[in-house]
Amino acid sequence: MKLTDIPHLRLYNQHIRDPLPGKPEDVVSWLCAVQAQDYAGAKWSLGLRLQNASDAEIEQAFAAGSILRTHLLRPTWHFVTPEDIRWLLMLTAPRVHAVNASMYRKLELDSTVFTQCNKSLATALQGGWKSTRDELRDVLLKAGIEVHHGQRLAYIMMNAELEGLVCSGGRRGRQFTYALLDERAPNSRILLREEALSELARRYFTSRGPATVHDFSKWSGLTLTDARGGLENIQTGLHQELVNGQVYWFSEPTLSAAENTHVAYLLSVYDEYISSYKDHSPIAAPEVGSRLAAMGNALQNIIVLDSHIAGTWRRILTKHAVVIEVNPFSILSDSDELRLADAARRFGEFVGLPVEMR
Q1: Range of the domain at 315
Q2: What gap in Å lies between CA 221 and CA 215, rounded to an integer?
Q3: Do 228 and 187 contact (CB within 8 A), yes or no?
Q4: pLDDT digit string, tens, across residues 38-78
Q5: Taking a C-beta distance cutoff of 8 angstroms, is the pair 268, 44 a contact?
Q6: Does 54 share its domain with 115?
Q7: Is the pTM for the entire model greater than 0.85?
Q8: Residues 6 or more apart from 153 whose CB is under 8 A from it?
Q9: Contact at 8 Å (CB) between 247 and 241?
Q10: Please, where are the H alpha helices in 68-110?
C-alpha cells in the first residue's frame, strides 16, 4: 500500500465512494458514531453515504428515534443508534467528564447539584414527554436550581446525557427536544469495558481504515493506552501496512477500493472523512493543511477532488434554489468544474432544490 492509496481506501470504507443501500440508521451503525454538532451538515454526511437519500428521510429517522443525538466520545454531539448508545456512553463518558471537570468547578456544579438536576429532569420527562431546553430551564428554576449563570444549563444537560439519563427527542419545529434515554432506547446494548473497547476499535478501523492508533485515540477521545488495548484485542482480524514510518490498520480491501475514480465531493463541516483522523497529511498537502489551520473556526465545508482537500464551499438556501458557492484553493480545470457541478447536483437532490453554482 502506498500513501496515495490511503485516501481512496478511506473514501471506499466510509461509503462516500460506495454509498450504502438502506436507511439512515444503517450508515450511523456502520460508522458507530457521527459528529453532529452542526445538525444540517451531519444530515448531509449521512445522505452522502446513502443511496437516493433525502434530507426529509434523515429528519424523519431522527424524529422517530432510529438515530439519536447526544454527547459522547469527545465532548461534542454525535449521531448514534439506539442499540449502541448505552455502551458508548459507559465507555467514553468518564473521559468527557474528565475534560469537563474544570468547567464543572468553574460553574459550581458538583455531584449534589447534578443529582438534584437529574431528579427534576427525570420527573419532567417521564412518560414519553419531550421538552425543549427552554422548557427544562423552567423546570430547573422551579426546583431552585440556578441556570442563568454562564454555560451552567449547557453543562447540566450535557451531564444528564453523559450519565445516560436523557438524549435527543426529535425536533419541534426548529427546536431540539430532550427525552429520557430509557424510553428512547429501551433495548440498548450494554458491554463490559473490555468488550466495548474491542467493539469500538473494530468498528473504527473497519469503517475508517487505513488509520493509525493515534488517529483512533484522537477520534474516540480514549487515552492512547486504551486505544492500543482495543486495537490489540482485534488486530488479528485486520491488515497492517507500514507507510512513511507509520503503521496503518484496515480491513481487507477489494481490488478496486484503492482506484482513483476522479470524483468530486462536497463534504460537510466535521465530516468523518476529516474529523476521524489526527494526521491529515494523506488527504491534504502541507500548504493546504496550513491554510486550513489558519482558517480555524471560519472553516465551513470541504471540497474533495481526487480524494484530497481542494477548497471550501458553503450553501445558501432560498425559496426556489440552493446556491452553492465554491472557494477552490487552486485554479480548477474544466473537468474539475464538471465534477464539482455533479457533486452540487447531488446535494441539490438531497435537499430537494435546483442548484445555482457560484
Answers
A1: 264-357
A2: 10
A3: no
A4: 999 999 999 999 999 999 999 999 999 999 999 999 889 99
A5: yes
A6: yes
A7: yes
A8: 133, 137, 140, 147
A9: yes
A10: 85-106
